[in-house]
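Consider the following assembly input.
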Amino acid sequence: MPDTIIRLTPQPPFDFENTAMLHGWAELEPTWYDPKLHTLQRVEVLPNDQVVVLILHSPGSVWQPQIEVSIMHESPIDKDQLAELDGRLKHMLRLDDDLSDFYALCAERGENWLRLKEGWGRLLRSPTVFEDMVKVICTTNVQWGGTKGMLRRLVAAYGSPFPRNDQLHGFPSPQTIANIPFDDFATAVRMGYRTAYVHELATRVAAGYLNLEDLRSPLLPTGEVRKKLLGIKGIGPYAAATILMLLGHYDEIAVDTAFRSFIAKKYFQGRYPSDKEALAIYQDWGKWKYLAYWFDIFSEYSS
DNA sequence: TTCCAGGGGTAGA
DNA sequence: TCTACCCATGGA
């Protein structure tokens, strides 16, 4: 079966590599980045259960961006599945987000912040809120290597395989996870105490008690979404702020050990301030605090 | 071996 | 609202 190609034309400025790589999501299965080929790849399960592999690359530039998506598939893809895929890709890359206010603020700041205007800030996310939520739960109280391992085991054990290469699996659906007996699930994924949070989340979503995808509505105020997130077991202040960022609300910073040590090092000569003092650093970024912090920490450790 | 990580739940104040 | 304590797992 010949592969199919979708072409996307983002509004400039758009930095493909930065979008793919900035916050680590491209290191979590079933997504990965090939630094040599400059391609972002992902195994995706379509609504009709067809498993495909997506290979994204960007032949354009920041100011004339293009994205070419090669879809590897074993059986024909119909128009509806392609339309669904198109929507998921735009969501993952945040192609419809308007960051112009943020870039205007960066221009006012000047200096290093000017770099941000060149297409930064579209942090990669997953096609579904469910997948992002599972991933965020797996970042809590664990080192990054541990997070990657949990996701690798989850996807390998329960994700639908790609017919052309059964080493490649998609992300398991809530229904799939909910149907697995808890003890079997725990043994396979080895997520520690997070196992119960992930299994319960999947069970509640599968049963229809929770509709996570509704949280994507940009009309919902941050406070309302935050409240709903904190009502989910396994989601505390750090996870809620991270998920809010993934949903496009940047007004809260996720306070974790990385944030605390970065602020102590850069702004307090090594002394650890209170969280309140630390958060005050970004207070005047308004609804863009998370992006300002993320750029700040990225440029500190990449320079 | 011990420590602790891109924290969170719970009980008790 | 704040604090103390416990929580599985695995990398360093």
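The radius of gyration of chain A is 19 Å. Ask yourself how this observation constrains the way the partners meet.
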